[in-house]
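Hi team,

Filling in the usual template for the complex we talked about on Friday. All components are listed, including any nucleic acid strands or ligand strings, so the model treats them as one assembly.

SUBMITTER: L.P.
PURPOSE: interface mapping
COMPONENTS: two
RESIDUES: 684
SEQUENCES:
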Amino acid sequence: MTIIVAPFSNSDIRDWPAEHFAAAIGHLADAWPGRIRVIGTANQRLRARDIVRQHDPDRVSNECGRIAWPQVVRELEAATCVIGNNSGVAHLAGRFGVPTLCVFSGSHQRLEWRPLGTSVVTLTRSIGCSPCHFDHGSSCPFDKACLRLITPRLVADTALALIAERARATAADAATPAQQELA
Amino acid sequence: MQRPTLGSEHETARRGGSPETYRHGPLAPWLGSGDIVAVGAAPLPRNEDGHAIVFAGYRLQDVGDFRAAIRDWMGAVRIGGHLVIVVPHAFLFERSNALPSRWRPEQRRLYTPAALLDEVEEALIPNSYRVRWLGDLDNGYNYRLERSVPPVGRHDIALVLERTPIPDWDLTERQVLTATGPDFAFEPGHTRLERPAVSHPTRILVLKLDHLGDFIMGLPALERLRTGFPDAEITLVVGSWNVGMAEETGLFERVVAFDVFPRNSTEEKVDVHGKTTLFRETVTGEYDIAIDLRNDDDTRFLLPLVRADIRAGMGNRAKFPYLDIFLPVDATRHGWEAVRIEELSAREFDCRGVFRRTHHQIAARGDLIRQDGNAVVWGPYRHLLPGQYLFEPHIDIDPRTPGLVAYDIAVDEKVLHRGVFGGAETPPMIFRNETDGGRFEFRLWPVDDEPLADFQFFGGRLVRQGASSVLHQSEYTTLLVELLLLRVTQAGVLREWTPPA
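RESULT (copied from the run log):
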């Protein structure tokens, strides 16, 4: 039971604010018993500290720079849920069919760039300045309102709903034919 | 060699030392004297200003939530005071790089200096502290003892942190906020949750309402639709002139005649929108998918009249918001064959100083020019993409004055086209530029042994020929069907999603 959180893309205009990730992780840790692992590169480890700082390290770990990419791929495939931005991890998780939340910045067209897969829920705000195609968050005069206005509570609740949905589907698949008929 | 027993010395090693243990070593500046509060089993005593020194010896390695513990200890230190953390050194105490700890089974983590610092950086807000000392303590350590016996001598890592006031700035680079959401948000307060859904359509309606040739060009798409949805019931709506041919294909369960266009548009008046009522009466069923396979958009208005879960057609959502699946077609496909038309004013050209220049023209008097082998007008030195070009100079040559005017076109100083203005008609100046960024130059010259005619030059028009970006009709319709198949059966059609309660 692991939620993998990938908070960093290769362009910070696309990154949901770190404090939002931290708050969403807090909601998830309160409501869900498994482990939450924050992944990224070694260079992103410093930034990930701001996300994990307030949480119990037995539940929430900073794995940035600690896991080689082949292992990341294996862990994504086995994850209970993946939460990411408009970046490669969300695309990969969607391809694996893992319940995935993509907190999608208004910098790009969601219809063009969203992760594919019926297990993926994409969260966006409809904002007039989108798509801006900026690369840097500091270029945005609105402090990334397109992301900032997506609340941690909504992301956590959506993740929990996806996890519950997958659990129900798995239980239904495991049920005997007789049980399925009764259901 | 005699194996040492696990006696009182070992117990001391297990517990680590008190502050006094470190009083005379490198930690003396902090533990030598003064108000030292040691972390113990009980909560740290607090006072209003905080303590000068908090000592956490052999505590951190046993704590699960190290982030909260370090924050708690540092919270008891006053600004300018110090937190001293001592933990067992993995390489000197456990002499191992993996848990469980050889001598302290309750230990949760092993430490190196880097691992200790990593936990501190993870626990404390940046710039709320400074690292004043970090090092290994191994005074009296017996390196000759085997791994299997308890260590003798100090075997610790010590870290001294000074608590500092947090500056007003933080490490996040932010733009100054100049506006907030509601005035530019189309749906204030609403976050879209969207999720694609695949489906298995059993009832498909196809509109192919155009003429005979269009129907034939649409056959590859219709065949692909049939193979893509082999179990679906497909109803085709066509002009009455195509019913027989459609039935003969055997691709459809039902063929319905509906003439939205006249069979011959030159013989009858076209009234597409006047057929709405008739269409409602003719197409009455409910469908999983309704797709319009006409390329031009004049029949798209019929789709919202169909009861269907998914509507597909050529065009875009801005124009046809009811399309769930749409193939955007190039808006310029009916445009000119020119991809770039640039009007170059006379200001973008240079000329001999004796000519009179106004805002929009260069007025040349031939009698002011001596034959010296130089151009009299030149410019505009535009950098061009590779391609075929046409330049049309805007020039009036005064027929009342004797003389001629020659011209040439050069790219990167290589002359590609030259001639002499000989009459009222300006010859077409077509040239090809092969180099990316080639520098275009147009020049006017006197002709050898001839006077220069008077003229007025107003600039010119530079046109680049376009490579047509139009697809064949049959390709558009086939691509639309392929897109439909991809969306419906694989990628899914994107819809707003509400998590179940």
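MY TAKE: The two ends of chain A are 26 Å apart (CA to CA). The CA atoms of residues 172 and 178 of chain A lie 11 Å apart.

Thanks, L.
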